[in-house]
Design a protein that fits this description.
homodimer, alpha+beta, Glutaredoxin, Glutathione S-transferase Yfyf (Class Pi), Chain A, domain 2, 4-stranded mixed beta sheet, 8 helices
Chain lengths: 212, 212
């Protein structure tokens, strides 16, 4: 029985888990979460899928996991991939996953949502300006770290890379332009060159086109 | 040689690490980070302490770690405490640490900063309203989870508890009132009853009183 991932195309947090599954070679299939119809906020979802009301959620037999970094850790255990070569690398990978979760993907995901998925007259301009400014600081940290490096941790792709790229391949604007950040741009190209790489809307069901 | 923790009293992220160290019984000492004089933004701090420009940072001999959840994991390895009883609990602990990092402590810390540590005429009212509303959703998730439970994961205190409480013991207002959330209130009392528990300003150097 293949691994199931509750996810949807617009979710960069889901993309982190889906990309790790796809590149790991494990057998998996997506289960579409209808976020834009309120599925994650429903009583049923909270009671039976995830009390946190979030995607992604991975189900593998009796095991049910949420939070993309927990899911990526599980994928590494099963596949032997992306988890780093020793305890020091594993800690460093987790460090970047946590940083991403606090400073990069969380902010990028919210900013992109506010700008692209809310009606224009409901967009909170001051909030958007605030999070865009915070994101500039995050891009700066990541770009500085990647100068002279091909990958975030060690000498190959790890979950640190598959996490921090979560929102950076999306086409919708949220104040990120690859051309402004040469080291990030080069690193994203390294990820895109991996065998089996797919963009978020090619990897998971659901996209803005479905709702147009 | 004792473990050193770069931290400061106002930082709930530092508190998570300091509290785990204190309750673990490991020998440790704080190194004061002068955040309010810009130390974490300095070139020296980024080059020699933490490229992410954040506290806390733990130094134990040659090992240097940042991100409170990574530090807590290391403390569990060394002390045998707070890490959960098996792989399933360990994953569940990490899940709550990540959730906290994204939805609770990150938002609480920022909201508290904006309301209490910025001059009144520089406080972004729309941002504060926005993050306060998001925090209500987070308190709701945590309170619902704690109904009928003494601890977040399993039957005893773990890093999940020592993480999610990070900002909830501070006296400054940020839209959180224990009286509104009975299950959270009871759980915080459980933490306060632990042998060796200290409040943030008693555990770490630096407090608003120093700058008054």
């Amino acid at each position: 029985m293949s691994i199931k991932l509750h996810c949807f195309g617009e979710s960069g947090h889901s993309y982190k888990a889906a990309l790790a599954l796809e590149l790991s070679g494990l057998d998996w299939e997506p289960v579409f979460v209808d976020f834009f119809k309120g599925e994650t906020r429903s009583e049923d979802y909270r009671a039976n899928v995830n009390e946190m009301g979030e995607a992604p959620v991975l189900v593998d037999g009796d095991i049910r996991l949420s939070q993309s970094a927990v899911i990526q850790g599980y994928i590494s255990e099963k596949s032997g991939k992306f988890g780093g070569k020793d305890a020091a690398e594993a800690r460093d990978i987790l460090r970047w996953q946590l940083w991403d979760n606090h400073k990069l993907s969380s902010q990028a995901g919210m900013t992109r949502f506010l700008i692209n998925f809310l009606p224009q007259d409901k967009q909170p301009a001051e909030v958007i300006g605030f999070t865009k400014a915070r994101l500039q600081a995050a891009y700066q940290v990541l770009n500085a770290h990647l100068e002279g490096r091909d990958w975030i941790v060690g000498n190959g792709v790890t979950n640190a890379d598959l996490t921090c790229c979560g929102y950076l391949f999306y086409p919708e604007p949220f104040g990120f332009d690859r051309a402004d950040w040469p080291a990030i741009d080069r690193w994203l190209s390294n990820i895109q060159a991996l065998d089996g790489w797919k963009s978020p809307y090619d990897l998971m069901p659901g996209s803005p086109a479905d709702r147009a």
